[in-house]
Amino acid sequence: MPKEKARPGEDLIARNKRASFDYDLHDRFEAGIVLKGSEVKMLRAGKADLTDSFCTVQRGEAFLHGVSIAAMAGAAFGHVPKGARKLLLHRREIERIDLSIGREGMTAVATRLYFKSGFAKVEIALARGKKIHDKREAIRAQDAEREARAVVVHGQRWYGRG
Q1: Model-level pTM greater than 0.85?
Q2: Which of 23, 21, 27, 16 is nearest to 100 (CA)?
Q3: How far apart are CA 148 and CA 8, in angstroms?
Q4: pLDDT tens, 32-44?
Q5: What is the DSSP string of 3-61?
């Protein structure tokens, strides 16, 4: 799988590479995040980690848990590095996420964190956990792709020198 680049008009802050390995990703939603000033400054510095981040729905509101935004040294009104953060979504999107988590046994994981038009956004994906044999199959596919790429590159180098 090629390394993901930032999409046009987006400034990528962090990716959850582990999510696509541990889960089968389905529907994706773009959500705004309610942040404090110190959190935004640390995001602009690229100090965020999406590993183990997930979304919950409580009383009709969506919250993002597990996102680690480094604490800002010397901030007058700092923030909690791993606190829950409210997500800004449409009511129908929140209902869809809540239904998928509750009835279908899915998980809502954060896959990307980025700035779009100056606003911090997070991409939430509805996901179903992979079994161990699925993960092994994914590793085999990655290895085969890597080997094929190496053969192609090696073959091109060999022809170039002859």
Answers
A1: no
A2: 27
A3: 30
A4: 999 988 889 899 9
A5: PP-PPTTEEEEEE-HHHHHHEEEEEEEEEEE---HHHHHHHHTT-EE-TT-EEEEETTE
